[in-house]
Design brief:
single chain; mainly alpha; two-stranded antiparallel sheet; 4 strands; disordered N terminus
Length: 399
């Protein structure tokens, strides 16, 4: 704070990221005050992109000469809701369409969803649920994604002066952990269905007629193949688009998602949708009909992912930032719904255990898992290289 006998000079604008000149291949980052715009001039750079942090700030001139009392008022401004979101890893709504009243509400919603998700993991890991091992691990791996976004979001705001979604390298890297989680979650149920089909057909463990592309893969090998194939494909397509000059031709702003980052999003949403269908079929294969509850409870998560993709489709514009709190609300609902659904799976599993041990009237009380013939889920992806390469190609081309 300035001393009482002097006039302080307060910088009104924080460090910001400037957009590139037309034809530039990358963004440059700079610090320092920006000049006051003329009354008739736009405050946006040439490409129309204004960093989200700047959108939360006042757009007054670069410097103001104020009294000590005014300087003190400006200093306390850092404690208001809009200023606070500047160091909040998950928030994007400060000072935008939702205003100060709801600034940072998405962070509170994301935090509230952590406890019900832990409850969901607890029931998912119970022996009575009989969750496939890869799926169980994938669901827990999601926690790494959640906690990785915290330092990534803080670095994006403190180093680059922007929200995480606008810093592509941090955004794509952290989101890739979500893709890993969803892939393993879906792969586990695909393996369970393939095992059931093999047992029904009497060819369990027989791979004599399988080719390299149709032979059963382990989860780590399948994940490595997906990362390698999707990564190579998306980078090749990105290089081709850059060589052809498609970026400037489409007039995309400098914060547009790169092709590899879009591939991560396409893959994540696709894997989740497939997992929902696989789990619904797993209810018949396992004999635990309450797995259908889990499949339905996953719907809010799918809607949440589509909200995120829509936000990115509009270049993370503050005018559509309300999609992020909506995404957070849907995530909270999905966590709660999946927690209840997983509990119902465990309760049904306990009942099945009791029935399996009853000897009074086996034909009446015993519950035998109903194995569905292979023909009823021929659509389901097999846990092999061919299915993984299809997903990789879809992710790259979709991006």
């Amino acid at each position: 704070p300035a001393s009482s006998g002097r006039v302080s000079r307060v910088t009104a604008a924080p460090a910001r990221r400037w957009a590139p000149s037309p034809g530039s291949r990358s963004r440059s980052f700079g610090t320092g005050p920006r000049a006051a715009p003329a009354p008739s001039a736009s405050v946006a750079p040439a490409d129309g992109f204004v960093p989200a942090i700047d959108a939360m700030r006042d757009t007054a001139g670069p410097t103001l000469f104020v009294s000590p009392a005014a300087a003190s008022t400006a200093a306390t401004r850092l404690s208001d809701p809009i200023a606070d979101v500047a160091v909040d890893a998950w928030s994007v709504t400060g000072g935008t369409t939702l205003g100060a009243k709801f600034a940072g509400v998405e962070t509170k919603l994301f935090q509230a969803g952590l406890l019900p998700y832990l409850v969901y993991l607890y029931f998912l890991g119970k022996d009575e649920a009989r969750t496939p091992a890869a799926s169980n691990f994938g669901a827990r791996f999601l926690l790494l994604f959640v906690f990785a976004t915290i330092p990534a979001g803080v670095v994006a705001k403190t180093r680059y002066g922007d929200i995480l979604a606008n810093v592509d390298v941090l955004h794509g890297t952290s989101e890739s952990l979500l893709t890993v989680s969803n892939f393993l979650f879906a792969f586990g149920f695909a393996t369970a269905l393939a095992d059931a089909a093999a047992e029904e057909g009497g060819d369990a463990g027989d791979e004599s007629g399988d080719t390299l592309s149709t032979r059963r893969m382990s989860a780590p090998a399948a994940l490595a193949l997906l990362v390698g194939a999707a990564g190579a494909g998306s980078f090749a397509l990105a290089l081709g688009a850059q060589t052809a000059g498609l970026g400037p031709a489409l007039h995309e702003p400098s914060n547009a998602l790169s092709v590899p980052t879009w591939a991560v999003h396409v893959s994540s949403v696709t894997e989740w949708a497939i997992a929902m269908r696989l789990i619904y079929a797993h209810a018949d294969v396992s004999g635990n009909k309450n797995w259908r509850n889990v499949s339905l409870a996953m719907t809010p998560f799918l809607a949440s992912g589509l909200c995120a993709c829509t936000f990115h489709l509009f270049y993370n514009s503050p005018s559509v930032s309300a999609l992020v709190p909506l995404q957070a609300l849907l995530t909270l609902l999905g966590n709660c719904a999946c927690g209840v659904a997983a509990w119902s799976v465990v309760k049904e599993g306990e009942a099945m255990k009791i029935d399996e041990t009853m000897k009074v009237d086996e034909s009446k009380y015993r519950v035998t898992p109903r194995v569905t013939p292979r023909s009823s889920f021929d659509w389901a992806p097999e846990p092999n290289a061919a299915s993984v390469l299809k997903l990789a190609a879809w992710s790259a081309i979709g991006a």
